[in-house]
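Figure 3 (text version): structure tokens given as input.
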């Protein structure tokens, strides 16, 4: 489904062989249930978050878990974490669960970045995408005492000297990194020359901002909303195409910059399942999306409903993979 990648995959394959053994060994601690023709998907479901506990995918999977339980959509749902390499270690494991329909996995923008960045030997064409479910957006944040009062101030300093602004966010190739790259391209700054200090998540990135190690952080708004409200940091703009309900923060587009990258979250089914099983998994995800519990989760996390499935979702993945591949190439990664 994703476009062919021209870079050699030998190093990526060697790394995956090593890490895959570790992931497989770790995975034996949870039950991977084999599919059968009479499997009741409403009884038991394993929801794989391809990231560590507390991250964006983990939060998404656990909110889905809670909604399924609360609404009685699935009786028993367990979340299992398989972190590493932008979600591609989890994806690599997931591609081996052929026919095991009682397993689903979270996916999204970061996984597409991980596929490109790590020359992954597997991609989303090796599994069965079910649906895009929600979107969240990054905020551009500075310290409370920062001299930068607007995104224009940052861009002005950046244009004078690409090294003058030190950025931080998630891992290299993450949505945070890609948003900065897109902004750089939009304002005529070479993204390969910028200073970016990657961190494992929004919490670590904010620490570098608060202790003065970095000048600007880019991270999910819901991760730093409390600190913005308390006045510890100032949010200058958000990457959404439109203002978020209840959030008094201009979008980058509103500020005059053509940057609106979406951090979308979706769900995958394993390969080799029957059409009946796929249809039932799709029904489970759709019922969860329509439930009151999930709508409450969207409000609490300031996520945006963006449900998409079928051929349109497949086309979206292809286009998004292409766009992300181009940004990663611009970053020189």
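Below: residues designed for each position.
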């Amino acid at each position: 489904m994703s476009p062919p990648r021209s870079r050699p995959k030998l190093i990526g394959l060697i790394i995956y062989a090593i890490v895959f053994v570790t992931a497989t060994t770790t995975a034996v601690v949870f039950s991977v249930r084999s599919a059968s023709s009479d499997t009741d998907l409403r009884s038991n479901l394993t929801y794989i978050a391809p990231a560590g506990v507390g991250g964006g995918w983990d939060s998404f999977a656990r909110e889905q878990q809670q909604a399924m339980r609360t609404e009685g959509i699935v009786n028993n749902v367990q979340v299992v974490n398989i972190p590493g390499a932008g979600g591609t270690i989890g994806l690599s494991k997931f591609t081996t669960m052929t026919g095991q329909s009682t397993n689903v996995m979270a996916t999204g923008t970061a996984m597409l970045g991980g596929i490109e960045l790590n020359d992954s030997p597997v991609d989303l064409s090796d599994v069965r995408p079910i649906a895009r479910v929600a979107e969240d957006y990054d905020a551009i944040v500075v310290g409370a005492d920062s001299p930068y009062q607007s995104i224009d101030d940052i861009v002005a300093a950046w244009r004078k000297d690409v090294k003058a602004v030190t950025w931080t966010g998630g891992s290299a190739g993450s949505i945070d990194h890609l948003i900065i790259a897109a902004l750089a391209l939009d304002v005529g700054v070479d993204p390969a020359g910028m200073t970016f200090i990657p961190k494992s998540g929004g919490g670590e990135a904010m620490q570098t901002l608060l202790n003065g190690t970095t000048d600007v952080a880019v991270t999910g708004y819901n991760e730093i909303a409390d600190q913005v409200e308390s006045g510890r940091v100032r949010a200058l703009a958000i990457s959404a195409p439109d203002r978020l309900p209840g959030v008094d923060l201009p979008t980058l587009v509103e500020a005059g910059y053509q940057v609106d990258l979406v951090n979308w979250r979706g769900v995958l089914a394993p390969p080799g399942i029957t059409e009946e099983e796929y249809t039932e998994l799709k029904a489970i995800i759709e019922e969860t999306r329509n439930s009151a519990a999930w709508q409450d989760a969207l409000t609490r996390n300031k996520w945006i409903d963006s449900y998409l499935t079928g051929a349109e979702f497949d086309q979206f993945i292809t286009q998004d993979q292409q766009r992300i591949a181009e940004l990663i190439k611009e970053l020189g990664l």
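The radius of gyration is 20 Å.
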